[in-house]
Amino acid sequence: MIDFTFEQIDVFELNNDLIISWLTNVCVSENKVCGPISIIFCSDDYLLSVNKEYLDHDYYTDIITFDYSADSEVSGDLFISIDRVKENALTYNVLFLTELYRVLVHGVLHLCGYGDKSVSEEKIMRSKEDFYLSII
Fold it and tell me: What is the pLDDT of residue 14?
């Protein structure tokens, strides 16, 4: 089950059914089962406070993923700064929804076990993101 909430930002319209179906298919394609995933869209300040409190990081980011996955079931919380997504979309000259989908699939790929700390991990992550973006 995938659910969406909004913290410290105005609610905006999304095609929830499309996103749920797509992210569920990402999990299945990665030989995983889609369990409970909470997607929390929030402001920069909200995500900064989460980053400080739980990760002891004092900087802005576009997404923080808390992974509760066990065995083959994918589960977790994805906190996404809409402020960062909007800014990144402008920086990379892509549509807001394209950047939002990239961040969403990035979080789910983390829940599926992919990392992005090393150059080789980041290369795999980007390749997976691009592939799944091509099928939404």
Answer: 95
